[in-house]
From TrEMBL:
This is AzlC family ABC transporter permease. InterPro entries: Brnchd-chn_aa_trnsp_permease. It is a multi-pass membrane protein. The chain crosses the membrane at residues 21-41, 73-91, 134-161, 167-184, 191-208, 214-229. Belongs to the AzlC family. PANTHER family: INNER MEMBRANE PROTEIN YGAZ (PTHR34979:SF1). It is found in: Cell membrane. Keywords: Cell membrane, Membrane, Transmembrane, Transmembrane helix, Transport. One of its GO terms (biological process) is L-valine transmembrane transport.
Length: 235
């Protein structure tokens, strides 16, 4: 226990995790509600929405899956698209692992809850001190519970509200991603990557249809980023 602070270390770390994740939890609630409503409009039951959010816990991949949802569901295609969307987690995990004070088993368990937000907050905290298990699990599990509960509530409300497309709510997550992309900067590589990925996805959706446009746009963006990068960055 730190004599300057009477609280035990683990309790201080838990409080720090709750403090840091609180603003993100509030911002994630309307997105979770929207996902639940859109999923319900696609024909998923409330239980299915709850299980998907609890077991998959990947907002971008879940929205992509719902966007391309048809009957019967193309399992292989959905799995491939999800793999591409979440491939960044490999790099995020590799970056964060040396900075976390957890056993290997705890790390494997803890990284189930890995999200962009949890990674960014942990990287910021690691600039000042190692990231403890108490900090990570409180922050990550609270965000997981918030996403699961808000999306489940959204599914319940969606059963009464009907199709979100009637009021344009289905575009909210797309608008969020546009805002995120706009914040990446205006470098040549970024502009080329976004333009090529969007163009290919639009063309594939127009001429072939869902769900192939998701994987096609992702692969085209990866190839464009590699080709547009300076030669020294590729070597």
């Amino acid at each position: 226990m730190d004599q300057a602070n009477p609280l035990p270390t683990y309790r201080r770390e838990m409080r720090a995790g709750l403090r840091d994740i609180a603003p993100i939890v509030v911002a994630a609630i309307p997105i979770g509600l929207l996902f639940g409503a859109v999923a319900a409009a696609k024909g998923m039951s409330t239980l299915e929405v709850m299980l998907m959010s609890a077991l998959v816990f990947a907002g971008g991949a879940q929205f992509a899956a719902i966007e391309t949802w048809i009957h019967p569901a193309p399992i292989a295609t959905l799995a491939f698209a999800t793999l591409l969307i979440n491939a960044r987690h490999v790099l995020m995990g590799a970056s964060l692992t040396p900075k976390i004070r957890m056993s290997r088993v705890q790390t494997f368990l803890g990284f189930f809850f890995l999200t962009d937000e949890a990674w960014a907050l942990s990287e910021r905290r690691a600039m000042e001190r190692p990231v403890t298990g108490a900090y990570w699990f409180v922050m990550a599990v609270v965000l997981w519970a918030n996403w699961t509960l808000s999306s489940t509530l959204g599914a319940v409300l969606g059963l009464f509200l009907g199709d979100p497309e009637r009021i344009g709510a289905d575009f909210a997550f797309t608008a969020l991603f546009i805002g995120l992309v706009a914040g990446f900067g205006r470098s040549r590589v970024t502009l080329v990557t976004v333009a090529v990925s969007a163009g290919v996805a639009a063309l594939v959706h127009l001429f072939i249809g869902a769900p192939w446009h998701v994987a096609s746009g992702a692969l085209a963006g990866i190839a464009a980023a590699y080709l547009a990068a300076p030669k020294e960055a590729r070597s």
